[in-house]
Amino acid sequence: MNKFQPADFTKAFENLFSTSEFSGFNDVVKNSTEFTNKFSKIAIEAAEKNAELTQAWTKETLAKLEDVTKTQKDPADYAKVITEFTSQQSKASTQRVAAFAEVAQKAQIETIELLMNAGKDVQEKTKTAVKKASRKAA
Predict the structure, then answer these.
(1) Is this model's pTM higher than 0.85 or not?
(2) Are the beta carbons of 61 and 86 closer than 8 angstroms?
(3) Into how many domains does the chain fold?
(4) Other beta carbons less than 10 A from residue 91's beta carbon
(5) Within its chain, how far is the Cα of 64 from the centroid?
């Protein structure tokens, strides 16, 4: 009995798409893969930077919480410590949110540039294909 071998299927698939009729399909797959890799790189870099910012913010907050949890001699000192902590957190929050916004803005700009370049490539390839088809038709 002849068993199906995945390598046989792979070889048949490669042979099918290696013909000239499928060269355009191969180009589409290649271009799509390159675009996806570039887009993924932008997204992963933004996620990594956001994770770094979040970790730094958390560490800073936890370090300042140590001051809040220390025993105070006077009950009024608790209010003072909490007020200082809250004030510091408000100031830090503004800076941290601005840092997150910078990451988002950078990712957005890089994505727009990627899309615009992809559009230019498609436009150029379409122009070339139309010229080629016009020459063949003439």
Answers:
(1) no
(2) no
(3) 1
(4) 10
(5) 32
Tens-place pLDDT, residues 4-55: 666 666 776 666 666 656 666 677 778 888 989 999 999 999 999 999 999 9
Q: Does a structural domain hold residue 111?
A: yes
Range of the domain at 62: 42-116
Query: Domain for residue 136, yes or no?
Result: no
Query: Would you say residue 122 lies in a domain?
Result: no
Residue 21 lies in a domain: no
pLDDT in tens, 96-119: 999 999 999 999 999 999 999 988
Pairwise CA distance, residues 43 & 49, whole Å: 10
In a 13 Å sphere around the CA of 47, the CA atoms on its Cβ side amount to 6
